[in-house]
Amino acid sequence: VRDRGPGFDEGILAALGQPYMSSKGRPGGGLGLFLVMNVVRKLGGDFSARNMEQGACVTLSLPLAALTDGDDREA
User: Fold this and answer.
1) Rg from Cα positions in the chain
2) 31-62 in b/e burial notation, b at 16+ Cβ within 10 A?
């Protein structure tokens, strides 16, 4: 996902994915992105966020599932 907004504050960007971290500046759970990043990595995927010249880019990728012997689904 890309946008053309102000991007991430460098302090926020460095702390993305830390438990209880929130960019909202108010008390809250701060667990959403932490949980997403952990699930993605346990599934062999990757999550990244970076600032661009204008805005920010957040990327989430997951591997394709491999068919196993005896799996009767069509490829």
Assistant:
1) 17
2) eebbeebeebeeeeeebebeeeeeebeeeeee
Query: pLDDT tens across 2-13, in order?
Result: 999 999 889 888
Q: Quote the CA–CA distance of 30 and 69 in Å, as a whole number.
A: 41
Task: Write down the pTM of the prediction.
Answer: 0.68
Cα dihedral angle (65, 68, 74, 75), rounded to 10 degrees? 50
Helices assigned H by DSSP within 1-75: 10-15, 32-42
Please choose, from the candidates 16, 40, 19, the residue with its C-alpha nearest in 3D space to the C-alpha of residue 31.
19
